[in-house]
Design brief:
By secondary structure, this protein is α+β, with helices and mostly antiparallel strands. Helix content is 25%, strand content 43%. The strands form two sheets. Strands 7-6-5-4-8 form a five-stranded antiparallel beta sheet. Strand 5 and strand 6 form a beta hairpin. Helix 1 crosses helix 2. The relative contact order is 0.13.
């Protein structure tokens, strides 16, 4: 079993008991150091104090379970406003919202699209294309495997 899976199993109940969803666990080397990152979410969003509270709650659990052989830094973070959509629950959370979509290969000579997420399933998602004028146009169905990046669109207006 992967380290991330062991950590997920060890801390998920504690994170959920605090009122948060454990969205993802990452374990990777950053600037020469191992970093274990827990990404959390909550209906009203996540504050810095929330991250600190979760960190203090899971730290002793990780010390006792000792699932990581190397020295590492523990990081707890919100999933972020522009976190890429990867899992079904990411897509479900964004139905009706605008998305930025980048494809691996062009469609009609374009690789980047802006659209409102209409629907999704395990293999495809459908967006209603949004033009430069903000008007909603035709729908486009995209295979999830063909999307290099799908993330919530953020308007800086």
């Amino acid at each position: 079993m992967k380290i991330t899976e062991v950590v997920d199993q060890a801390v998920r109940a504690t994170v959920e008991a605090l009122g948060f969803e454990l969205d993802e666990v990452e374990y990777q080397k950053e600037q020469g150091n191992w970093v274990l990152t827990l990404y959390i979410d909550a209906p009203g969003g996540v504050t810095l104090d929330d991250c600190e509270r979760v960190s203090h709650a899971v730290d002793p659990i990780l010390d006792e379970a000792d699932p990581i052989p190397d020295a590492y830094y523990l990081s707890v973070s919100s999933i972020g406003l522009d976190r890429p959509l990867k899992k079904d629950r990411d897509f479900a959370r964004n139905v009706g919202n605008k998305l930025d979509v980048k494809l691996y290969a062009p469609v009609n000579k374009k690789k980047e699209f802006l659209g409102t997420l209409v629907s999704f399933d395990a293999d495809f998602f459908t967006i209603a294309l949004v033009g430069k004028d903000g008007a909603v146009g035709n729908e486009m169905t995209i295979a999830r495997k063909d999307a290099a990046l799908v993330r919530p669109h953020i308007d800086f207006a």
